[in-house]
Amino acid sequence: MTSFQEQTIAPQPGESPHPTGAQQAILEFVEKVEKLSLFQERIEKPARLPQVWQAFQAEIEHQISPAAMALFLVDPETHAFELSQWLPAEIEETCRSEIDAQIECGTFAWIINRRQPAVIPSIVFSGPRTLVMLPLATHTRTLGIAMIVAAIEENTITHERLRLLGILSKQCALVMENTLLYEQLKAEHESLQAAQAQIIQTEKFAALGRLTSGAFHELLNPLNIISGHLQIMMLEQDLPSSWSDYLTLMKSESDRIATIVNHLLCFSGQRHKNSDEIDIVETLRQVASDALKRRAAKGVGLEFDFEKKLPRVTVNAEDLKTVIHHLVDNACEAMPEGGKLCVVVRYAPTDGAGAIHQNSLIIDIADSGRGIAAKNLHKVFDPFFTTKDIGEGMGLSLAISYALVRSMGGTITFESHVNDGTVFSIQLPVTDDSHEPECFMKYPGATAS
To answer: Cα–Cα distance between 209 and 212 in angstroms, integer?
Structure first.
């Protein structure tokens, strides 16, 4: 297939075999346009906005020799133009001042409404400087604007180069729009996956709660009878020592079954809860320290980071203590050779776009242990899921913690990386947020020996 250039330069009868100056200029311009049209293909898909900007910046430098460049993107919520990228680093404030000045004098609005490249004098940049403003707009919306600062005396901003930059900015806008759409679709997909996982988890707990609620009395009544008879038998005099040991073991195991049943009942939501305002700092320090001592975890250092002033929370104190005990136990098991356990409490005021609850208290329990394998991440809160050997654990501690935190009106999440530790985050709605947040205060921890 004969290319455009070959067709153009083919000599006609009576013409010179070499293109004229005008023809050569046209050919060069067409070649530049063809190169610019491949801008989208040169960007890795899917690209990030910084990658798009770097490629755009490189193309601009091919056309002119800019003294500085900046990228302003439209904030999707406020619709304001926010400075996103700039080069060199020291021009950040100058770029902001320049745009503010252009907006104030009305030039900026004229450029955006025109949706075409424009050359205007600089108001803020020192020295003889001119600005090349390249609106980044598609047929549906305006995404931002690129500002190129160049020296006037260089006289490099010709009409031809301005047209080429206009074509380039349109190509860049399409790439940026595709990037933003991809990121939006990815975020929506992740949100949908999280919501689906939450629904599945809720259904699991609801089914377990219905089962436990229905079997609660059927299980506990026989257990109470067995336990009562065991106690009577243990009161008998002159029992052989072996019998006494057997009876004690049977009583202990029947009590263990009763404890498991009572724990499972928390999934049914039928337990009566007494809630009180508690001192979260003192509660966490006491419970975490006691849990660590009870585990006799050798070489595990305990550290606390609390804000100086924290709002109070209204929860069932015993339930919260149970959750902290479970999380500390799991953290210690993840650090069999020792490590660091850190308990952080922070206040998280929000406008609704950040934390799940407005004005929340976040409790982070972080360990430096072995982490959770990727294949098990979605099973962490499942009842009876455990990676321990048979007989070493029931796999209920995290499931019970999940149910108890939900019953307090809060949420519990986690983040884990293999060989890089795990962080469990409990988020509780605060009772009173009328306090002034202050900097974090580090309390000395303890090291279990």
So the answer is: 5
